[in-house]
């Protein structure tokens, strides 16, 4: 069956019938949680989904970044001395975590297509909390290695599963602000980790014979478990596999599937087959978005652990433990603000390119300042603070990838999983060589590497934009989806769906 026979002349929902609005008119409209034309029944359903998906997703992301950030905070707050750590031990602990994470990433992604997501994610959340609790009782480096290994295994499905579920329930116009809200919960967790360590160090140090850094992991455990319980009760599966519950009716599930069909989006089969993987590997989005994610992981790294080590080892200024824990929260605040502003802009205009370009250019500037080094202490702090903007690339790139392959759910699932997995492959070992801890506070090799990857990222963003514009002009992507899917694609829904995105290509 050819492409032409797969395309039927059929009129579907009209999303917007008013006069065409300019980019700046859309920006002045303000934040719209619901797209124009959303019915009352849809708003009720979306409100329920927001409460279920976003509450659990944000709490899960918050708790994981909180727990991960706690390792560095504990290291600079007494754990290094108490456990006799030295050299590159902190980097090795991170490498063990990512090695485990990566080992189970692709199998975990396929596991999500075979078991109910609403059970897998909360279960992993429980196990994550237990492993975090175990860090509080570590008495040697070996104990920490064991805990970090199992923590990595527990997180394998978290990010990919949450992004997949968000992309499965919401339409393109609804995704941007929600993905942004999900993604800022991560930096919030990192920020809170610094403040939490300061509080536990000053108030719980020595309580019941435990050091302050041990109390940090105990408190993190207490935050994680309620999050998992919320997931068991409310978190849904993908719309084509969800059963009615006390909070979501069958009529609302049918409405969700109808909305996706009207937008021209196929429901993904329960099991992804290996032939789908080979098909995705024949197209450009997999390669360019995965490479972009690898660059993103490297670019955002120097605003995290290296910044804390800089403050701890600084020779020009002696920073207190409170400052060492609190100052690294500033890049996270920068990330939150830029994520909100950039996601609002891209959601209203459909322009993913501009926020990505600005973030990569500013990150390159920050790396250049730190590489120069012979500047004032204020300039160095400014560079570390500005580097937080690199973390905002997370929602921009993920939303961009989801946009490009929105009509191909198998490709969307495999690309997002590969982005996360392969990016972490390099993040697991590259910092060991680029940011060796004994070189703190001046990481000449690391800052040089960060400048190079930032420049490459700028160029890659431009190339992705040109390739996407080419596909939009030619209609190539919709033709390929019809050829591979063997399912009907409604012409009117495709034309309406792609109209706003085609404006960028003119």
Description of the molecule:
It is a single chain. The protein has 506 residues and is an all-alpha fold. It is globular. The longest helix has 43 residues. It has a two-stranded parallel ribbon with strand order 1-2. The N terminus and C terminus are likely disordered. The protein has 23 helices and 2 strands. Helix 9 packs antiparallel against helix 10. Helices cover 73% and strands 1% of the residues.
Sum up the structure in keywords.
two-stranded parallel ribbon; 23 helices; single chain; mainly alpha; 506 residues
Topology record:
Elements lengths: L2 H4 E2 L14 H6 L11 H43 L6 H15 L1 H8 L4 H19 L5 H14 L3 H12 L2 H32 L8 H23 L15 H13 L11 H7 L3 H16 L5 H9 L7 H6 L2 H21 L3 H20 L4 H10 L6 H12 L4 H26 L9 H31 L1 H10 L3 E2 H12 L4
Parallel strand pairs: 1-2
Kindly report how far apart the N and C termini lie.
Answer: 32 Å
The helix tally amounts to 23
Proportion of beta-strand residues: under 5%
Percentage of residues in helical conformation: over 70%
Order of helices and strands: HEHHHHHHHHHHHHHHHHHHHHHEH
| Major beta-sheet overview | 2 strands, parallel
Strand order of the largest sheet: 1-2
Number of strands: 2
Low-pLDDT ranges: 1-18, 266-270, 482-498, 500-506
Q: Could you report the average pLDDT, rounded to the nearest whole number?
A: 81
